[in-house]
Amino acid sequence: MTGRYQIHTGLQHSIIRPTQANCLPLENVTLPQKLKQAGYATHMVGKWHLGFYKRGCMPTQRGFDTFFGSLLGSGDYYSHYKCEGPGMCGYDLYEGEEAAWEQDRGMYSTMMHTRKAIGILANHNPQKPLFLYLAYQAVHSPLQVPDRYLERYKSIPNVHRRKYAAMVSCLDEAVHNLTLALKHYGYYDNTVLVYSSDNGGQPLSGGSNWPLRGSKATYWEGGIRAVGFVHSPLLLNKGTRCRALVHITDWFPTLVTLAEGTLDEDLNLDGYDVWEAISEGRPSARQDILHNIDPIYPRAKNGSWKAGYGLWNTAIRAALRVGHWKLLTGMPGYSDWVPPQTFSNVLLTNRWHNERVRWDRGKSVWLFNITADPYERVDLSQRYPHVVKKMLARLAQYNRTAVPVRYPPKDLRSNPQYNGGVWGPWYQKAEEGDHEDERETNLLTNHLAKKRRKEKVKTKRKSKQQVDEE
Q1: Of 38, 49, 64, 66, nearest to 255 (Cα)?
Q2: Are 135 and 48 contacting, i.e. CB atoms less than 8 angstroms apart?
């Protein structure tokens, strides 16, 4: 949405929780804002999940002319309710900046979002520029789908996998119907359709990243490499596979440039215009990808500055791709290779066919040649220390540009029971000044400072104990 890495927005740790006074920082220019400047009508349907604690964070305040969908990251596909714990439940379906009670017919969200999107196409003039951001809730937990889609997957005994497959089929049908609408209403010949995802699958919920390593919320390829395609009559080379480095931040400059918009230098973008790489097969301008640096994720016990050659503290969770090479430090997360769970109802932890790998076997640095070894089976960090050093230095360089992490504590005023039973903005206008952002950042800064002081005290005690023993 911003064309910028997480470390440059302050959202480098975890996700935005519904109970947090947090959102995509308002100083960040968004893709719809730039497209509006280029003369485009901008509409959003689906999942927002970029924060909503105050009105200024809402989609219609961040560049969209209209918004229909949910503010949270997940929820019931039919009732559109979401619970964040006992006594913290609320309704989450919006039209603009108000709850969409009147439009709710208990329809399955994938179908409801598609119907809304097709309605936008029907009521817009195809001769005028249009940006439609359709962020489906599917496929995400909870695993829910109309029964008729389950029928074709009776042969899959694993219930989670069966539901997941059915949900994908429903999503496929939705994209098909949207494509038919683009043709019917006269948009298709001048349209670029980008299908993109935000992360890998969750094997516990029916997903599969096989043969890639790891899962959602990890820095292994199974967690960060996602499926996607670009479909358009405007593509010069159709039916081809782009093997260039492409990151989700690249959609911002790519789409703004296609729309003949302007990219100001003060945007400080991390993304690149990759249209020629996709459309013509030319080399990508992108040479590296900072997957992330998360300074407050639990640190690797065996990580240290020494292990990072004095260039980087390898206890910190981070991942970087440069050309063919990928470097990971800290605790990358769940690291098994999990075959598709199509034939078992046994709990994941007891499945005999998993390749169990403990990430805490004294390691805090990994190096892979992803081009030759996309499954991350052969760690080359000991064989190529000079490559490790170069990439650690690059990590440190990126880290010097990072802004403080925004991850404020739970705010009890977010409870929907104080807002008519609806998840929505709870900050009052008097509280919406810049000083609130500073206070939130200071909360985290103070937390980290206290943590560092505790670590120093522990170190001093340990040193004193060693002296006494000697």
Answers
A1: 38
A2: yes
Question: pLDDT confidence of 443, banded at 50, 70, 90?
Answer: very low
For residue 327, the 8-state DSSP code is E
CB burial string 402-411: b at 16+ within 10 A, e below:
beebbbbeeb
Structure confidence by residue, pLDDT tens digits, 15-28: 999 999 999 999 99
Distance of CA 321 to the CA centre of its chain: 17
> Cα–Cα distance between 6 and 398 in angstroms, integer?
11
Write out the E strands in 168-316.
193-195, 229-231, 288-294
8 A C-beta contact, residue 457 and residue 125: no
Give residue-wise pLDDT tens across range 278-313: 999 999 999 999 999 999 999 999 999 999 999 999
Between 172 and 103, where is the model more confident? 172
Spatial distance between the Cα atoms of 268 and 367, rounded to a whole number of angstroms = 29
Kindly give the residue spans of alpha helices, DSSP state H, lying in 185-274: 221-224, 251-258
**Other CB atoms within 10 Å distance of the CB of residue 331:** 23
Cis peptide preceding 295, ω within 30 of 0: no
Whole-number Å distance between alpha carbons of 432 and 56: 8
